[in-house]
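Support request, please re-run this one:
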Amino acid sequence: MVEAKLSEDGRVGLLTIDAPPEQYPSLQEIQSALPLQQWKLPVDTSLLEKLVNSHQPAKDLIITRIDFGADYFVWYIDQPFALVPEPDEDGRIDFKRFHDFQEVQAGQKLLSVLPPEDIQDLGEQTRTILHYLSGRNTTVAEDGLTLYAAADGYVFIRQNQILVDNIYYVDGDVDYKTGNIKFDGVIIVEGDVRSGFRIDASDSIVVHGLVEAASLYSKSGDIQIQHGIMGKDRAKILAGGNIQCAFLQNAEMSARGDITIGRYAINSRIQAGGKIFVNTQEGLIRGGKVLAEEGLYAKTVGNDRGTETEIGLTGFVHGSLDTRRKSLVAEKEEHLRRLKSLEKQVEFFDLLQNRLQTLTDQKLQEKRQVNAEIQSLQQKITTIDRDLSALDSKGQSMYQKKSICIEGTIYSGVTISMGTVREYIGSPLSGVRFYRAGNEIAMETLETA
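Re-run finished. Output below.
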């Protein structure tokens, strides 16, 4: 069923479609049901196309274009649809600048509407244009003339509805039409992020398209890029949480958490505070530098042409263990210095006794005290050595938990780094695991890992 009508104040055209997907009307069938000559309002054809493609049901959906700057609207905030920035003092317009979003509180007036001149009394049941413009977290006054925020957040216009949210949606690409975006919340981009633009979010960023030579920064959330990144050596992706993308080429990427790359990472600089996974589909790392703190997993690293590539693990100095070890080593060195001095004293007593044939009672007492101190120091040094061994074992256990696993082939030309220890791969290896063993990088086959 397709039903089209005007709103009661005659300001917008409304569409209702109630049909299962298999019986959904075509674009032509919907357009033929619209009384355009009666409406005398421009129809948003792109919205109709989206409905047909998605087979989504609709109930009193606004399908005519709205002039939010019309003189019958009275805005109490800056109009959220005015995306073109004002010129500066020199008359220039920066189309890339960050857009400022209107933050509002629950109960705040957003917009009022004047009734049409030919309507003297709206009546209690009359639905004005605001009833159809009212989106998520907004409410309309009883007289239908004023729209209020029903929650704290930011004001947006999305698909002909005014809403308040902490999620910012970009229906298309991030480009000159949107400018750079800085938002205190989640940002969702339905299209691509074009070269030269920047997204800055306090929370997560989701991009359903491609990222070109652009910058994405999420202060405390995750970044998800459905397609991938073609960075042209100018893309920078930074996240306080995790990062997921399909592929990465000629870009820089860093995350405090894990990084998951679906297909490949080529000629890129990547660093993760957690683990890095490039082990699905192609699972290729070629060129660039890829470092993780907790582990790295890939199918193929490098290529048969010997492309210079570095993969590695960081974070081998554990703060508390390292501090304790330094303290024990310093204590042992102090004991050894004292022990050396005491042994010289014993040597003197022995020489003195050989020359005098006997020692005085005082010297014998001093010698006994020195020998007792030597025995005590030797016991302390033995205890310190035992503690150092335990610390080293604990550190080694921690090191072995962190590894680089290559399911396929790692080619010659690849350098593996683990802290300050480096290893150059001279010939191709397959199905191997690398881990730190003391001051060396050890290797074993994945079958025995």
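The radius of gyration is 36 Å. Confidence is low (pLDDT under 50) at residues 82-87.
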